[in-house]
Design brief:
With 865 residues, the chain is mostly helical. It has 46 helices and 7 strands. It is 62% helix and 4% strand.
Length: 865
């Protein structure tokens, strides 16, 4: 079940008591309940029952279904209980009292659970007969400490009120996109965007709508589902059916406010819910069923009527005009194209690409059609949809021979492929596009990004030969050789002004040059300006997440990556980016001691890419696995992972990321007898680092200190002497720990203590549990208690245990945003926000929203020592 990890954990963790799982049809309640039943294992007995319309008026039919596997056990009950229960389920005559039936069922289930823990799974409780529901409620209220759990599936809490519950809300955008892309015939391009929009996060709708091969404005359903979801429509008044068609054709549902009287019978029939002048269908599939139950002529007339109604909403009006237009029409095409700038800001790049593609279809002039198709390819590239981009570019080439337009089409394909594993194809297209002077800068910038991801020496050579004029391109290709370029960052910032894209580009450059603190500040400025303009996060936000991670802001790192995903990943189909985000989460998990999770995420990430062509992800993944092994105290495995980041000859697998692992490689080598091999790689790295940053310099000194016992102190002091290393608090704390260990072993206890105390405080603030434990052990050996002063409150450390999205919600709530405002920012419902907050409070050890600021301020304002 994609996107239900938290709910799965809750359900599988149910040992005793009652849990009600609610949600609208198609959200996955039955699947979740079946998963719980199937996962129970041989040591737990499972009883199952499912409500049905045909038996909903048959007294005790639900109870009969649930208890059938334990009928033999009824004979063990006391006589009055046995008789009452047998009478209820039809095994003997009589009219027993409901109270006695309830007592009998409770006794029966309790005694069965004493011999073998018991899970009773009841789906569609709303379709159970009332007698069975009342009896189960009686039992549920009296479950004590016995190993008896009752798991209930319901549409809402009113069907089985008064018990703990979880709600399966619509899937969030990233999970919805992931589920859609996992379908056997996953749609692409404009149809993919339409399925995501129309399904509205409902898993069943995503699956069913993905099966249609058509590309209507409202996607059709298979006949069997259309009959189910349009049942009763023909019994409604004609005015109601006409109004329903208008509402179905109007994605915003706002037209309902002008047709409330006509829609009242549809609300009574349960097809829609009216609230605040809007209409919401009972289920996303109802909308499709209503729309396609009308004739083609009726649908066209509905769109014309909506266009007439929406004169004050030009963007929505343009779409309805397009839906009502059959042949080419330049005026409609122009109106639709005019919506795209606002679509990019409001809905995302996929919406803009869809508008431009439809405008191209309506264009009567071939050259205009080609221009709009290329523009659509650009928007689809920004949406991260490689297949769609290639389709649009291929079609554009059939309508033009304009060299600039053809080069632009190649540029768009190359740009989006630079973010995939197809780096060879991308580089060839981008180099061709770079021949056009107007496109050179864009093409080389994209080529540099692709080269950074691939890490291939041949790719770097190609881009290096063309990148004479742009410092940002040179830094991407050769960051260690262009350290001096850092001096130009202030000038580049002045040029960037308040342009979020330009600021983000400079921030990436600062991050690669190990100006990490500066990069974090620039990324924050870029986000602020982007938010002020109403723009969604860019693809480069992943770099911001890594900068936060390097800077010791691990919760913020995961939150930043999750925020970018929430806004844009539903559009994107970029496994390399998804893999990178997983590796980031894995790294944070490893550093906080959640090593099994870290390994699982890395395994999943590496399954999404080709490691031979995505060396950046491979190198980061290797570092995460190595740190997980270090956290577990498995130094042999750690050495193996770090060693794989370098070839047999000692060359780095990735020209930038691999060098960050040099000191860890040496640390693992010293503990496993591989000092000679590690020393050879260390010396080669030192030779390659022509103008090493303070970070790399400190890591190299740390490596030498671990290898050279006699000269270790000089290297430790040199590594710690540069105040710039405070930008990387975890790495600096490691130095302090190892220096403190070195001093203590030489009985220089008084000198070791302050270093160990400072390291302990930093590890505690970061939530680096395994390293904190190791440091506290050293402190005890140095004569200081196991709980050094300055340790952080439990709530702060617990923040790292939350999911990235929960961390982001906590941060926004601490700043005073309401649930509605947070939902709008993160593209989720206010109800989902409330649910995440409710789950997070116990983890953080707090009970109210007012306490959040203290925890978040502890993360963001405490200085790094």
């Amino acid at each position: 079940m994609i996107g239900r990890e938290g709910e799965i954990s809750t359900v599988l963790g149910l040992v005793g008591g009652v849990l009600v799982v609610t949600g609208e049809p198609g959200t996955g309640k039955s699947t979740l309940l079946s998963l719980a039943a199937d996962a129970a294992g041989p040591g737990r007995r499972v009883l199952r029952a499912t409500g049905s319309h045909s038996e909903s008026n048959l007294p005790f039919s639900g109870l009969h279904q649930l208890l059938r596997p334990v009928f033999d056990e009824i004979e063990r009950l006391p006589e009055r209980q046995r008789s009452a229960l047998r009478g209820a389920i039809g095994l003997e005559d009589g009219a027993p009292a409901p109270m006695m039936i309830g007592v009998a069922v409770l006794t029966l289930l309790s005694e069965v659970s004493e011999r073998t823990p018991l899970l009773a799974v009841v789906d569609d409780i709303g379709l159970f007969d009332q007698c069975s529901r009342d009896t189960l409620a009686f039992v549920a209220r009296r479950i004590g400490d016995e190993p008896l759990a009752l798991l209930i599936g319901a549409l809402d809490e009113t069907e089985f009120p008064g018990f703990a519950s979880i709600t399966l809300d619509p899937l969030e955008p990233l999970a919805a996109a992931t589920l859609l892309d996992a379908q056997p015939s996953a749609p692409t391009g404009r149809r993919r965007a339409r399925v995501l929009a129309q399904a509205d996060g409902n898993p069943l709708a995503l699956v069913e709508l993905s099966r249609t091969g058509r590309d209507d404005v409202i996607l059709p359903l298979p006949d069997r589902l259309e009959r189910v979801h349009s049942a009763g429509l023909d019994r409604l008044p004609s005015a109601t059916r006409s109004a329903l068609l208008l509402v179905a054709a109007d994605a915003a549902g706002l037209v309902a406010g002008t047709r409330s009287a006509a829609l009242a019978p549809a609300e009574e029939a349960g097809l829609i819910r009216l609230s605040g002048g809007r209409a919401r269908f009972r289920h996303p599939l109802v909308r499709s069923a209503i729309y396609h139950s009308a004739t083609s002529a009726e649908r066209l007339e509905a769109h014309r009527a909506l266009a007439d109604l929406l004169v004050d909403a030009p963007d929505r009006r343009a779409w309805h005009l397009a839906a009502a237009t059959i042949g080419p029409d330049e005026s409609v095409a122009a109106a639709l194209e005019a919506t795209t700038p606002r679509a990019r800001l409001r809905c995302g790049h996929a919406a803009a690409a869809a508008a431009l593609e439809r405008a191209a279809e309506l264009s009567p002039v071939p050259s205009e059609r080609a221009r709009r198709l290329v523009a659509a390819a650009g928007a689809a590239a920004d949406a991260g949809q490689p297949t769609w981009v290639e389709q649009l570019a291929t079609e554009a080439r059939t309508f033009t021979d304009d060299p600039l337009l053809l080069a632009t089409a190649a540029l768009r394909v190359g740009q989006v492929l630079s973010l995939t594993c197809h780096h060879d194809t991308s580089l060839g297209l981008l180099m061709r596009a770079a021949e056009e002077p107007a496109l050179t800068a864009q093409a080389l910038s994209a080529a540099a990004v692709g080269t950074f991801h691939s890490g291939a020496a041949a790719d770097r050579a190609v881009v290096r030969a063309r990148s004479v004029g742009d410092p940002r391109v040179r830094v991407l290709v050769d960051p260690d050789e262009h350290r001096a370029t850092a001096a130009s960052i202030p000038e580049l910032l002045d040029r960037a002004g308040s342009d979020p894209g330009a600021l983000t580009s400079v921030a990436v450059m600062a991050w690669l040059l190990d100006e990490t603190a500066l990069a974090v500040r620039i990324f924050a400025d870029a986000r602020q300006h982007r938010r002020a303009l109403g723009q969604t996060p860019s693809a480069l936000e992943c770099s911001a997440a890594w900068a936060h991670l390097d800077h010791g802001q691990w919760a913020q790192a995961r939150s930043t990556a999750a925020g970018a995903d929430a806004a844009s990943s539903a559009d994107a189909s970029l496994p390399q980016r998804a893999a990178g985000d997983l590796v980031l989460d894995a790294t944070a998990a490893a550093l906080t001691g959640d090593t099994s999770t870290a390994r699982a995420w890395v395994e999943r990430a590496l399954s999404m890419i080709d490691p031979r062509t995505s060396r950046a992800v491979l190198a980061r993944a290797g570092w995460a696995l190595g740190m997980a092994a270090v956290a577990d105290g498995d130094h042999s495995t750690a050495y193996e992972h770090f060693r794989r980041l370098f070839t047999a000859e000692g060359e780095p697998v990735h020209y930038h990321f691999a060098y960050v692992a040099v000191a860890e490689l040496v640390a693992a080598a010293v503990r496993t007898g591989h000092e000679a091999e590690a020393g050879r790689i260390l010396r080669r790295a030192e030779k390659e680092a022509h103008d090493a940053s303070p970070r790399i310099g400190a890591l190299l000194h740390r490596g030498h200190a671990l290898l050279d016992h006699d000269g270790a102190e000089a290297h430790f002091r040199e590594a710690l002497s540069d105040a710039a290393t405070e930008q990387w608090p975890f790495e600096r704390a490691q130095l302090l720990l190892e220096y403190g260990e070195w001093l203590r072993r030489r009985r220089r206890i008084l000198e070791a203590r302050p270093m160990l105390v400072t390291a302990s405080e930093v590890f505690g603030r970061l939530g680096a549990g395994p390293w904190l434990d190791r440091t506290r052990g050293e402190l005890r050996a140095a004569g200081i208690g196991s709980e050094p002063t300055g340790s952080e409150p439990a709530g702060r450390d617990a923040l790292t245990l939350l999911t990235p999205q929960q961390q982001q919600i906590i941060g926004l709530a601490a700043r005073g945003l309401t649930n509605r405002e947070i939902g709008a920012r993160l593209f989720i419902s206010p109800r989902t926000v409330s649910s995440h907050l409710y789950r997070s409070y116990p983890v953080l050890g707090i009970s109210s929203r007012a306490q959040l600021r203290d925890i978040v301020d502890g993360v963001t304002t405490r200085p790094v020592r």
